[in-house]
Amino acid sequence: MEPLSATPRTSLGRTPERAGTDRSVLYEILDAGLICHLGVVVDGTPRVIPTCYGRLDDTLYVHGSTGASSLMTAPAQEICVTVTHLDGIVLARSLFHHSINFRSAMVYGVPSPVTGEDEKLAALRVVTEQLAPGQWDAARHPTRKELAGTTVLALPLAEASVKIRQGPPSDDDEDHALPTWAGVLPVHQTFGAPVPDPALTPGISVPAHIAAR
Amino acid sequence: MEPLSATPRTSLGRTPERAGTDRSVLYEILDAGLICHLGVVVDGTPRVIPTCYGRLDDTLYVHGSTGASSLMTAPAQEICVTVTHLDGIVLARSLFHHSINFRSAMVYGVPSPVTGEDEKLAALRVVTEQLAPGQWDAARHPTRKELAGTTVLALPLAEASVKIRQGPPSDDDEDHALPTWAGVLPVHQTFGAPVPDPALTPGISVPAHIAAR
To answer: In Å, how far are A79, B84, B105, B137, B157 from B160, measured between CA atoms?
Structure first.
């Protein structure tokens, strides 16, 4: 497996010990996410858009959105896709060492619009299964018209960085004697009980692939 | 209360029904978040960085980070700060209408570095209390040296947009007869039980303001 790239912008200046260099860690962070934040430059200024995505091998597929439409008219521009998992709030004895435990991945590159019906279907399958595993086989597939109205961008995982902070607070030695509680408040993303569409035909029960999450 | 701005980039083109125009909704979305995604342009390309923030009245304070350091050397550039809450996965009868329920806020503007010890302390208090309410009074305050080593940016809530999707899937009428389950899988952010620092002095119990979350 190729290690991660080490271009200047994917090398961490301030806290190099938080950098991941293993490609498998990049995959884990991306595969565990439900949404990404897509950064684009519009008229010279940054725009950050939450949207859906999926990964297959070394390609990240990003679902079309309001922001992606501006990308489609100028497809040859660079984007940044960031996926962040907030794992905990780090409560230190000093305010200065308060922090967050997190895992984040940033991917840079020039995306290509996915064209061709078969290619688009394959890419949409990746995006759908990332958000809602099992739904590709459960729901009605896109019509030609729906496919034409859907934008998917493909971004190679060629230039990427991973940043991770885990573990207890990093208080200064002289602060350890303070009578202040210190530790981590874990943060989790959880699923609630499925809420049926009020228009659902009576008698259709929640399928196992949804109930099991 | 001033309504939200309606500049071209804060007006939603594709799904105007998802736009919020009430400033109180902007406040609610920002106040409920733990981290934001900060977008900056570095050497002409976008960079999206997760970081901590806080709001006081119509100012958003963004905590210094690896990315913010590049902002400090070129402070007169525009940034975009996005806060997103993922509330649910929308499972439709058709793949085309799969979606997410979410609340997001995007704020644009040119940030100012917060300077002056009193101003910086006040801004840090806002950021700390957003992430860890109650900790400002519980933990050791910053030294002058720590203050000098901390970057906080102030961004006015002058140009902002809010986007919200809630509720059941929006399947086409002709798809309602399909024998496919449809509804929403709620997504929640929850806190786990506090994990004490292994180096914690024995006998210090978790304070109520942490345990109560």
So the answer is: 22, 13, 7, 32, 6
CATH of B8-211, one of 3.10.580.10, 3.40.50.720, 1.20.1250.20, 2.30.110.10: 2.30.110.10
Nearest CA to A35 out of A74, A66, A63 is that of A63
- B48, B53, B106, B204, best to mutate vs chain A, most A CBs in 10 Å: B48
Q: What is the pLDDT of residues A111-125, one digit of tens each?
A: 999 999 999 999 999
Query: B61 CA to chain A: closest CA distance, Å?
Result: 16
Q: Specify whether the CB–CB gap between A150 and A124 falls below 8 A.
A: yes
Q: Write the residue in B47, B98, B190 that is nearest to A9 by C-beta.
A: B47
- Determine the residue of chain A that is closest to B81 in CA distance: A48
Which of B160, B124, B191 has its CA nearest to residue B30? B160
Residue numbers in A near B66 (CB within 8 A): 12-15
Interface touch A96/B142, C-beta < 8 Å: yes
Asked: is A8-171+182-188+198-211 a CATH 1.10.10.10 domain? The reply is no
pLDDT of residue B1: 46
Structural domain spans, chain B: 8-211
Residue of A nearest to B200 (CA): A182
- Tell me which chain A residues have a C-beta less than 8 angstroms from the C-beta of B186: 191-195
Chain B CA closest to residue A93: B139
| Nearest one of A109, A31, A119, A105 to A71, comparing CA atoms | A109
ipTM surpasses cut 0.90: yes
The residues, any chain, with a CB within 8 Å of residue A12's CB and separated by 6 or more, are: A18, A19, A161, A163, B66
Longest CA–CA span in chain B (Å) reads: 67
